[in-house]
Amino acid sequence: LQVFDDEGKDVTPHPLLHSDPKDAVHGQGNLLSSSACCGTTGPCFLSSFSMHQMAGMSTKLISLLLNLEQKRSCLLTSCNFSDVQVRQEEIKEELTKEDLDRRVDIYLTETETIWMLDMPSVVVSVESEDADRILERNRIYVEICKNRPGNDRFVEKIMQTINEATKNKGLQCDKVIMEDKGMLVTSWDLYDSFNILETKSVSKAESSRATTGKTSTSHATKEYNQTMSVSSHRGSTTSVSILEGAVLPRIPKEEECHSEAILTSINFQQNLFFIERILMENIFQPKLAAYRQFPVLIDPDVTSDTSDKVAAMKEANQEEQDKEKEDKEEQKETFIDPSVLSDLKKTLEETVPPRLEQLWSYMCNLTHGHRVSSMAWNKVNPDLLAVGYRAFDFKEQEKGLACCWSLKNPMWPERIFRCKHGVTALDFSMTSPNLLAVGMYNGSVAIYDVRSCNDTPLLESSASSNKHTGPVWQLRWVEQDRSATGDGKKERLICISADSRVTEWLIQKRLDCTNLMEIKRTASEKKKLPGEKGRKREAPISQQAAGMCFDFHPKDTNVYLVGTEEGHIHKCSCSCDEQFLQTYRGHKDPVYKVTWNPFSTDMFLSCSADWSIILWQQDSQMPILTFSSTTASVHDIMWSPKSASIFAAANENRVEIWDLSVSIIHPVVSCFASPGAEFTSVLFANNTDCLLVGDSEGEVSVFELQNLAAHSSNKV
C-alpha cells in the first residue's frame, strides 16, 4: 500500500526496525494490505513474519507484538480516511538486480528541541533599585533579537578568545635596612601627650573627651609599666615600639589642621620672608659691602681665635705707625716735601694692574641650563635686576624664563615669569617701573607686572594682526621727549625683529604696533680694479634684511641706529620710514650690538660675529678703530656709565674690559669663562664699579672692578 495526500505526495509510513532488507520490504506490503483491507489482529500480522523470525523470538516479545497489533487495528478502524486516498498496487515480492544496484539516499535531520525545564538565570534581585531599569533593558534586547532574522544590520560572526599564558616578572629593590632605636620616656611625658585636648576643652563634649583622656592615661601608664618590665628582658627597642604604637594613633587631627593653618598663614610667610632676608644679609654681608663700596664690618662677638687675629692686626698697625714716624723723621732730616711722597704713592697705586674680583652669582636650579639672553636694571630700584633666559639650542626654543633678582637674595629670584617661548629681550619701563616688557623667540611681545606673582601677562601681542613673524632680538622703552619732567614724560616701546621690521607698540586695551622702518638690503660697494670688467650681480633671495639690534641717540630721540644680519649699520629717522639717513659698512657678518657713547654722543660702538669691535664716528662712514683680540664672536658690548673711554665686551670664551685711554690694542682686563660655558651678555652697574656677565649655563656673575680708575674726560 502507498498513502498519498491531496497534493499527491507519498506519505506512506516506514517501519522503524528492519531485521533483513528483503524481509522488511515484504513485511511492509503485507502489513499495510492486511490492515487496510480488514481489521484482523494477531494471525494476519504474524503471518507477515517468517517462521525463521518467529522461531528466534521469545514469548514475551510475541505477546508484545500482539498487543501492538490490536491497538493499531483499533486506531485504523476508528480513524476516518476520507482525506487520504489509498491505492493498492502490486508490489514485487522479489527485488531485481537493478533494484539492488540502485542508489538510495538517506537524509538524517535534527528534530526540534524539546525543552523539559527552562529556568532563566537571575543576577539582580527583583527588589533592588535597578531592577526596573534592567528589566526594561532585557525587554529591549528581546525585541532586538526578534527583529534580527532577515535584517541586514545583523551579521553572524564567531569569536574565539584565547587565554594567554601567564608570565613571571621579577623586580629588584634596595635592601631594607633595619635600625634599632631606643629612648627614655617618663610618666609625665606620657601624661602630657595624652592630655593635649584638655587644655583646649571648653564645651561639655570636650570636657567629656578630657575625662576619657584621663582614663586612657591610666591605661597608658599601665602599658608603660608593662613595657618597662619587658624592656628589662628584651631591651629598649621593644618598649619604644610598643610605646609609639600606643601614643601615635591618639594624636589629635585638630593639631595637624592647626599646624597646616599656621604654615599657610600670611603672617607666617611674611615672617619667613624677613628671616630669609636677615640670613642672606648675614651670609653675603662682606660681598654686598664690597659691591656697594662700604667698609666690611667685623662681628663684635668674636671668639678667642679671632681675638688673637685682631691682636695680631693691632700689632701690625702699630708697627706701621712706628715706621711712618721714622719716615717722617727721615723726611725732616732729608728735607723732602710731603707732596712729592703723595705723588709717589699715586704712581705706585697706578702701577697695580686692574682686575676683576667675582663677588657672587645669580643662579638656581630653575635657571640652570638656560642661556642668558638679556639683562636690564630697574629704572627706580637699582637693586632689582631682570634677566631673560632661553634654550641654548636654536632648534629647540620651547619655553623661556624672565626672572627678577634682588641684591637682598642672590640665591633665589624674587619673581619668576614662565613664558611659552624663549625670552630674547626685556626691559623695564621708566614712567611705570613695575612694567616689564619681554620679547620672545616666536615674535610675540608681552608686558608683565612685577608687583604680581602671577605668570599671566597684562598685555600680549598674540591677538595683534601686525605682530612680528620672527624673533624679537631687542626691545627698549624710549622717551619721546628727554627734556620733559614729571608727569609730562612719555615713552614708547620699540622692537626690532628678524622679519626686517622696526616697530613701535601702542599700549592700550591690547598691544598693537606700527612700522617705524622696514629694513631693505643694500648693495655692497666694491671698488673696481683698473682693467677689471663689471660682473653681473646676483639677485638676492629676499629684498629685506633681518634686523638684529638698535640704539637711539642719547640726545635726539628721533635718530637711531639699526644693525642688520648682512653686516651693515643704518642711521635712521622716525620721521622717514622708507630711506636710510646713512649706511656704515665695516662688518662682514651679522651685527649683534650697536650702542652710542653716553658722554661723547657722536661716537658709537658695534660688535659682530666676524670677531671684531668697531668704533665709529657718525659723520664718517669709515671705521675709526677696529678691535680684535680673539678669534671668537663678540655677542655683546656696553659703554661704562662712568667713563667715556671704557667699555666691556663679551666674547665666546672670555669677557674683556677696554680702556681706550690706556691701550687700543689689548684689553686692560680679561676674565675667562668656565669650561663648557660661553659668555653671552654684559651689563654695568649704575651706581657701583661692578660688572654683570651672563653665560650659556644660566649663571649671571657679579664682578668688582678693582684698580680701574675712571677718567674725568667726556670725550673719546
From TrEMBL:
Any GO molecular function: dynein light chain binding
GO annotation, cellular component aspect: axonemal dynein complex; dynein axonemal particle
Alphabetized UniProt keyword annotations: Cell projection, Cilium, Cytoplasm, Cytoskeleton, Flagellum, Repeat, WD repeat
Subcellular location: Cytoplasm, Cytoskeleton, Flagellum axoneme; Dynein axonemal particle
One of the Pfam families matching this protein, by short name: WD40
A biological-process GO annotation: cilium movement
Annotated stretches, region: Disordered: 1-23, 313-333
Biased composition (Basic and acidic residues): 9-23
Spans of repeat WD: 584-626, 627-661
Taxonomy, superkingdom: Eukaryota
Name the UniProt record assigns to this protein: Dynein axonemal intermediate chain 4
